[in-house]
Specification:
The protein is α/β, with parallel strands linked by helices. The protein has two domains: 5-192, Spore Coat Polysaccharide Biosynthesis Protein SpsA, Chain A (Alpha-Beta Complex); 247-458, Spore Coat Polysaccharide Biosynthesis Protein SpsA, Chain A. The chain is 35% helix and 24% strand. The strands form two sheets. Strands 1, 2, 3, 4, 5, 6, 7, 8, 9 and 10 form a ten-stranded mixed beta sheet that branches. Strand 12, helix 9 and strand 13 (303-306) form a beta-alpha-beta unit. Helix 14 (424-433) runs parallel beside helix 15. It is elongated. The termini are far apart.
């Protein structure tokens, strides 16, 4: 096999750069190795390795320059500045898969080297709904060069941060994106934070400029594949059904003896000029949570303590138990069993927003706090990327919709919530947004506790992959539904 791969790597300190260059050379397939630098330098550096300058490795300018420089059959992009250790025959295998499948882009699992300890890091399959800009392809991606260059020609907007994301989307429009379910290389992992600490990076205010660009790139992609929805919504009517209560707070709970009293107290202290109640779905707790709820319910008739008949319910299934309970109010409002409302006006503000914004769902904003309710980074999570004009499209890119979430009960009863314990809120939010406006409250309503017993505090790679695969599948299903809906409208 001839040397037919042009390799692009980011500039880094000399030792890491030399290690990566040596690893690429040992493959025997690297026709060119090009260092992309933020410094103003163009030409040849060590051992025939060339370089060019660009404002950022993932910028559109950088990607287009790569397309101009690459005159080989394949393009390899390594996106990290830490040492890369290619496995034996890694590039041969990637090229083999690319040829066999007609892929425009090939990626694989890898090994992580964390503080000298090697561990496997498998990745998940790509699908049409894999629209997250933080989808983990690993740091080594092989492109069919003709697909790479064709995608570059279709890049009409210039991004500082979203160039590599835009490239991926455009390649996927014309070629398969193929996952090789093998561990083909080793990368150094410097981010040693737990999954629960990483998951809010995308809503960190410091990353706002990045998110704006990612939304623009994703919106352009959705329009190209005919999955973008105009800001046209079904009119909502609030006269459907008969409800004794205007609102119900629903808390699914299992084994939260440490926090359930705080959560319930947070609800019962709410002030409103309408009737509301609290439905607690107690999913067979064994740590004393059941006894705590019973005691509170015995002294306050607003508390409805429900122990489901079924024992196979996830959080979504418990939510359905609450939503379909006879005492559920016109509006169903979420509160997790280890969180609490910021003040005693939350329910009133949420219900008011339904009527003012004429929406089927309302999403508020929340503050991140520790177990002792002290503020922790990134602080306020307001999901400002959810705009009235484009929010339901951008929702296909982001990993969550915010909290607290509230629903117009008749609509929620028609759609229902998947019986899972992760992503159930995201799934139903996407489904609602296909037809109805989702209202927003950008001020904090909710205190989200982060502690070791959170369900997503520290996930291993297998669990994290399962969560991401589920959300991608939900996006794929929703995107398919939207495309079918748009196609049906065009026929009318």
């Amino acid at each position: 096999m001839e040397k037919n791969v042009t390799c692009f790597i980011p500039d880094s300190e000399n030792e890491s750069l030399s290690f990566t260059i040596d690893s690429l050379r040992k493959s025997g397939l690297a026709d060119k190795i090009v260092v992309v630098s933020g410094m103003d330098k163009t030409g040849t550096i060590q051992g025939g390795v060339s370089t060019f300058s660009a404002p950022g490795f993932t910028s559109t300018e950088s990607i287009k320059k790569m397309g101009e420089v690459a005159d080989s059959e394949y393009v390899l992009v390594y996106s990290k500045s830490f040492p890369l250790d290619l496995g034996r025959f890694t590039l041969n295998r990637m090229i083999q898969v690319c040829e066999n499948t007609g892929a425009g882009m090939v990626y694989s699992g890898y090994y992580e080297n964390k503080s000298g300890v090697l561990s496997a890091h498998p990745v998940i399959d790509y699908q049409e709904g894999s629209l997250r800009d933080d989808f983990n392809f690993g740091s080594v991606i092989l492109y069919n060069a003709s697909a790479f260059r064709a995608a570059c020609k279709r890049m009409k907007k210039s991004y500082s941060f979203a160039g590599l994301y835009d490239l991926r989307l455009k390649v996927s429009q014309t070629h398969p994106v193929v996952h090789v379910p093998e561990l083909l290389y080793t990368e150094i992992e410097k981010d040693l934070r737990k999954t629960g600490e990483k998951q809010f990076d995308y809503v960190d205010p410091r990353n706002r400029a990045v998110q704006v660009e990612m939304e623009l790139a994703c919106t352009d992609h959705l329009k190209k594949i005919r999955g973008w929805l105009k800001p046209e919504f079904k009119k909502i009517e609030f006269g459907e059904g008969q409800f004794e209560n205007e609102a119900s707070v629903i808390i699914p709970v299992k084994n939260r003896a440490k926090t359930i009293t705080d959560a319930i107290t947070s609800v019962l202290s709410q002030v409103a000029d309408f009737k509301f109640n609290l439905i607690v779905i107690d999913n067979y707790s064994t740590d004393g949570t059941t006894e705590i709820i019973k005691k509170i319910a015995s002294s306050d008739k607003r508390v409805v303590h429900v122990i489901p008949e079924r024992k196979d319910l996830g959080i979504g299934g418990c939510w359905n138990e609450g939503v379909f309970h006879p005492s559920c109010g016109k509006f169903a409002i979420q509160l997790d069993s280890d969180d609490l409302y910021k003040d005693n006006n939350v329910i009133s503000r949420v219900v008011k927003s339904f009527y003012e914004q004429q929406c089927a769902m309302v999403v508020g904003s929340y503050k991140m706090v520790n177990f002792n309710l002290q503020d922790i980074p990134p602080g306020l999570i307001d999901h400002k990327e959810w705009t009235p004009k484009n929010g339901r499209n951008n929702a296909l890119r982001i990993n969550g919709l915010g909290a607290p979430r509230a629903f117009y009960t008749p609509v929620l009863r028609k759609i229902r919530i998947p019986n899972v314990s992760y992503g159930e809120d995201y799934a139903v939010g996407l489904a609602i947004s296909r037809h109805y406006q989702i209202g927003r409250i950008y001020e904090p309503l909710y205190l989200c506790r982060r502690w070791d017993e959170n369900s997503d505090a520290a996930l291993d790679v297998t669990k994290a992959n399962a969560h991401n695969l589920y959300k991608d599948k939900i996006r794929t299903i929703e995107l398919s539904a939207r495309k079918r809906m748009l196609k049906a409208k065009q026929k009318k």
